[in-house]
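STRUCTURE REQUEST FORM
Protein name: DUF1073 domain-containing protein
Source organism: Megamonas rupellensis
Requested output: structure tokens
Priority: standard
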Amino acid sequence: MRRNKNKKMIRAKATDAFQNMLARMGAFTPSLLESTNYPLTRLTRNLNLMNSLYRSHWLIRKIIDVIPQDMTKNWIKITSNLTSEAITELKSVERKTSIIKKITQGLRWGRLYGGALGIMLIKGQGEDLSKPLDLDSILPGDFKGILILDRWNGCYPGTSLVTDISDSEHGLPEYYYVTDPETNINIDIHHSRVIRFTGDELPYWEWLAEQYWGASVIESIFDELKKRDNVSWNIANLTFLANLRVLKMSDLGQLLSTTDVNSQRELYDTVQSQNWLMNNFSMQILDKEDDFSTHQYTFSGLSDVYQQFIMDISGAAGIPVTRLFGRSPAGLNATGESDLQNYYDMIEEKQESTLRPIVEKLLPIIAMSTWGVIPDDLDFRFNPVQRATEEKLADIVAKKSTAIREARDSGIISDRIALKEYKQMSDTTGMWTNITDEDIDKASNEIDIPVETDFGLEPNINGGLSNEVQQMENEKDN
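Status: completed
Returned output:
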């Protein structure tokens, strides 16, 4: 039987889902779960809300500030082959222009408002900022710092984008417009003269809706913030109910329903007077037919409930509870080191993805303003975010030094390689900093393989027998 080779493929749209109308379970059922909705709020555009939260809410301020501070607190280390005097000059320019402070500020406003702009201030180049920045035109001492403006401070991106695929800012706005508050005139600034700071990244169409900026980090944590705040306020209000005083009065309901306003007012005055007469020893004056009792409210379980909301907002912010709330780790054998290690790994990832492009764009400008030339091997690395304690550092140095020495004694590496390993260790531990390049060049590059003997003595690390073994061998031959 001949098969039909011209069969048409049937395309159908699958719309299957679980549903139980009688139990009110599943898709499109009238249940509390299915009534949940997630509207598109775009809170980033609510400038008053962003300002109010940052100014009045300590938790929001800390969420905005702590990550930029940790990203820049230990700054960078120049890894180029430069003299210590040249690196000192570069660091002096960084201090005088407050580079670390300005970049931290830009990262902060980018997280709060979704975007910020850093305009490079270069002496003698303020007349026409629409031209691309020419590094060769920068003379020593020309770089004066960075002017940070948030996205609501009169600056906005242009519509034309960078089309050069070799440009690191390909696909981003080519020009930025800043409004002069005195003259109300727009100033065109080329993208090579500015530094972009953005918040949370957005999909393409949302990115366009935000005018090529990002979203405020508050958007993703706002719901968790409201939950935590409401729980905290409710727990605070419950403290007023810790001791309830109950006064029983006969015929109170009839008195309130049948008497006139004056009689009711007299009743209120009587109860108020009884309350005032209660002294510091809780003595209460009552009528012989009245009854007075107290009830205490128990707060068991509230701490666990509140802790869960703290964990939620900590997870939404991406900051451990120990770092965000300043609390010590809770639980048996809890140290908090794993949480902090995950957090510091996240900070290092943000340094590479967010902070590195900023520093790479800024460092050649600072180099031209410092030395008048850009070294061919100009490069840097970020210093470790987490600094080890003295005890932990000493343990690390001892273990690494022992491993290097054993590798050298075993004939795996030469003296020169061993000294290089010791010097490289100084970058992270601060030890062996006095080993110079001359010491490394003078060291032997030959690998000495030890010789095993039957005498059980230490082999000569130079590749031959020790003096004791050699003497015994000579006596044996004679």
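Reviewer notes: The chain has 15 helices and twelve strands. The CA atoms of residues 51 and 325 lie 22 Å apart.
Form closed.
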